[in-house]
Amino acid sequence: VREFGAVHLVCGANYRFGAGGAGTPERLAELTARLGIGLDVIEDVTDAGAPVSSTRIRAALASGDIPLVNRLLGHPHEMSGHVCHGRRVGHKIGVPTVNILPGERLLPPFGVYVTRAFFTHGDYAAVTNIGLRPTFSDGGGVTIEPHLLGFDRDVYGEAVRLEFYAFLRAERVFASPGELGAQIRRDIAATEAYFAPRA
Q: Is 128 helix (H, G, I), strand (E, B) or coil?
C-alpha cells in the first residue's frame, strides 16, 4: 500500500505469502480489511476435473499439445519478438521465412506448427519451424522461423506476435534441400486447410 498505492488485491484460493508460505487468503483478508483495501479470492478454475495451473500449462506445452495449452489458457499460446536476419536458407529453397530470436522463452518441442503472425500492418497464416535446422547442420542454435502465407515485404526489425494453433510434425533431417522444400509445401497446404472456412 505504501510503495505502490494498492487499493484492491486479487489472489487464488491456494495463494501463500510470507516466511515459509505461512500467509493464507484468510490472513490476507484480515490485513486488507485493516488497511481498508479490497480483496477478491478466486476459486480454482478446473478443466476435465483438474485445476488449471501454470504447471499444467507448461507440461502441456512441453509435450506439444497445443490445443490443450490453448484451452487451458483461454486463448492461443503466443510469443513475441522482433524480426532479425537469418541465414536466408528459406529463400534458397523457395519458402522464405522471418526469423525471431528464441531468447529465454519456454518453447514447445522442436517441430513445425500452424501459427498466425501479427504485425502492426496486419496478420498472416504461417507455418513455423522451431528447432535446429538439422538438414543444414549449420550449428546456429535454436531458431524460430515462420513462413508467412501470402506475404512478400521487408519486415526486418519489426515487432511480431505469433499465435500457435496446432502441431504438424516433428523436426527431422531431409536428404536434400529440395526434399525439405517439398515437405514445407505440404505443411503450407495443411496450414491453409486449417484456416479454411469451416463448412
A: strand
Residue pair 132/138 in contact by the 8 Å Cβ criterion: no
Phi-psi region of 173 (alpha: psi -120 to 50; beta: other; left: phi over 0): beta
Of residues 109, 130, 114, the one with CA closest to residue 191: 114
**Which of 127, 106, 138 minimizes the C-alpha distance to 181?**
127
Q: Do the Cβ atoms of 143 and 104 come closer than 8 Å?
A: no
Which three-class secondary structure string do you get for 31-46?
HHHHHCCEEEEECCCE
- Beta-strand ranges (E) seen in the chain are 8-12, 38-42, 46-47, 50-51, 77-84, 99-100, 111-119, 122-131, 143-148, 159-170
* Cell numbers for 96: 522464405
pLDDT in tens, 110-151: 999 999 999 998 999 999 999 887 666 655 688 899 999 988
pTM over 0.85: no
